Amino acid sequence: LPLDALAAGVGLDVAAFQECLRAPSTARRIQQDIAAALAVGVRATPTYVVNGVSYTGKLPVEALPPAPGAR
To answer: Which pLDDT tens digit goes with each residue over 12-44?
Structure first.
């Protein structure tokens, strides 16, 4: 689905959503997020980090260790 359709489907103001996507501040934020991910070794999506260990790819939740404090 196009992003506009997804935005409309969850009740967003599509015009405001499009304006946000075009904003230079949005591009800067995305670049910051990419840089932060690369800095900690993320090279693909999805990547999960649990207890400091990275797991990449589509994994069943059972393949991941419990998070600290999880029951």
So the answer is: 999 999 999 999 999 999 999 999 999 988 999
What residues pair up with 64 in beta bridges, in sequence order? none
Chain CA centroid to CA 71, Å:
25
DSSP string for 3-66? HHHHHHHTT--HHHHHHHHH-HHHHHHHHHHHHHHHHTT--SSSEEEETTEEEESS--GGGSPP
Q: What is the mean pLDDT of the chain?
A: 90
Paired tokens of 60? 């069943």
